[in-house]
Amino acid sequence: MFDYLIVGAGYAGSVLAERLASQTGKKVLICDRRNHIGGNAYDHYNDDGMLVHKYGPHIFHTNSFEVFQYLSQFTKWRPYEHRVRADLDGKLLPIPINRDTVNRLYGLNLQTDEECAAFYDSVAEKLEKIRTSEDVVVSKVGRELYEKFFRGYTRRHWGLDPSELDASVAGRIPARTNTDDRYFADTYQFMPLHGYTRMFERMLDHPNITIVLNTDYRDLLSFVPFKQMIYTGPVDEFFDYRYGKLPYLTLEFKHETHDRPVYQPAPVVNYPVERVPYDRITEFKYLTGQEHPKTSIVYEYPHPHVDGDPYYPIPRPENTELYRKYKALADATPGMYFVGRLATYQYYNMDQVTAQALAMFKRIVTGQTATVAGATTMATPPPRRVVRPAMPWERDAAITAVGANGGASAGGATAAGAGTGGR
Ligand SMILES: Cc1cc2nc3c(=O)[nH]c(=O)nc-3n(C[C@H](O)[C@H](O)[C@H](O)COP(=O)(O)OP(=O)(O)OC[C@H]3O[C@@H](n4cnc5c(N)ncnc54)[C@H](O)[C@@H]3O)c2cc1C
């Protein structure tokens, strides 16, 4: 009998599998319906022998020493500071907007942070209340920069105007007064030296861990005995979409290899103009440091509001409200832990999911009762009738060893807070 069935072999599932197996001697079965481990961070060598990220570029960055130290057990690192350019009227300009962006766009010669701050101040719109993404940006850098850099990109990416999106979405995009053109400002900015998949392989390489791929967990429920389940898939799917689907943005990735050493002058070029059908082009060599006579790139085409792989939760108040209903169901489900980006309907970076899983591990071993990672303090909800696939211990009276960890969210469990925003 397995102590845990872990659904999903991405960061959330793999970190918990590794911790439970290596630190508590538990026997773990980890399954994924994809044909690989690593979740969305999966990378592989393509037919031309180039290391590419199947689900779009993944750049590791964190402010958390604990997360960095933890992952360092499974990989060596390559220092890498990410840089992005926006293609605007043929000019490739630094993004996030900084002093160079402003100088080059307007032919100015702003020399200091103060001069640049004064420029933003002169164009910023004074608003009484900041509610939407549009408000955030126009109140910071004015309407013209908003329209040039943000409006079209956001409309294409989310299928929504920035005026319809939570302030938190644009809150992720700083405007700088200095000339720092790094995309992230975190303390630790590295890429796994031999790629993410190699790191996951080492994480899951433990005699107490069994990996099953190409398998939906529902196909295992009837014949694999286990005591508790950790679920990192979409929470609405787990409850058979009882309250309707949680909306996600999905992406289509178009990979290409070109017969030349370099394709573009920056790791990522964003396309802010709405009529361009893709968000950005990434050239992997910059990220991986691989030397090769050819080069591989990926285009990202966003598809809001259509069925496909769930990538980005769409941050609107009604979606948060819908998630709350699913979270209440999750909180009321005994013998289950919900963790990771899909199970908690949150945009989390890799470091944040790692921190969330490490925090969940601590709660599991100390016997605390929060079943949803990142649960905030709330009163004990009344018992609910739960509609979901029947668990083995409910169908099979012989399997009874379910931990007493169900029920309400525990107070004091906090969301993982490592890293900065941005993807
Ligand atoms: C395009 C893109 C770019 C990103 N770039 C960055 C970046 O640069 N930096 C960064 O830090 N983060 C980035 N992220 C975020 C990063 O991908 C996530 O933080 C991380 O992968 C989340 O890990 P997870 O384990 O929560 O989820 P996932 O990686 O999604 O893993 C969940 C797994 O569960 C499996 N699963 C679901 N349901 C079932 C089921 N019923 N049965 C079996 N298996 C199931 C899925 O197949 C999946 O493999 C990016 C995300 C996207 C989409």
Structural write-up:
With 423 residues, the protein is α/β, with parallel strands linked by helices. Among the domains are: 2-77 and 193-246 and 313-395, Rossmann fold; 95-170. The chain contains twelve helices and 17 strands. The strands form four sheets. It has a seven-stranded mixed beta sheet. The longest helix has 26 residues, at 133-158. 43% of the residues are buried.
Q: Hey, roughly how much beta strand do the residues contain?
A: 15-25%
Per DSSP, the total helix count is 12
Portion in helices: 25-40%
Task: Give the overall average pLDDT.
Answer: 86
Task: Give me the CATH superfamily of the domain at 2-77 and 193-246 and 313-395.
Answer: NAD(P)-binding Rossmann-like Domain
Strand ordering within the main sheet: 8-7-13-14-15-12-16
What is the CATH T-level topology of the domain at 2-77 and 193-246 and 313-395? Answer: Rossmann fold
Poorly predicted regions are 375-422
Overall, the morphology is globular
**SSE sequence, one letter per element:** EHEEEEHEEEHHHHEHEEHEEEHEEHEHH
Secondary structure tally: strands: 17
Distance between the termini: 39 Å
Question: What is the strand and helix layout of this fold?
Answer:
Elements: E1 2-7, H1 11-24, E2 28-31, E3 43-45, E4 51-53, E5 60-62, H2 65-71, E6 77-79, E7 84-88, E8 91-95, H3 99-106, H4 113-123, H5 133-158, H6 167-170, E9 188-192, H7 196-203, E10 209-212, E11 226-231, H8 235-238, E12 248-258, E13 268-270, E14 280-283, H9 284-288, E15 295-304, E16 312-313, H10 317-331, E17 336-338, H11 350-366, H12 392-395
Parallel strand pairs: 1-2, 1-11, 2-10, 7-13, 11-17
Antiparallel strand pairs: 3-4, 5-9, 6-9, 7-8, 12-15, 12-16, 13-14, 14-15
Helix pairs in contact: 1-11, 4-5
Flavin-adenine dinucleotide is lined by residues 7-13, 31-34, 39-41, 55-60, 216-217, 232-233, 251, 311, 340-342, 348-351, 353, 423.
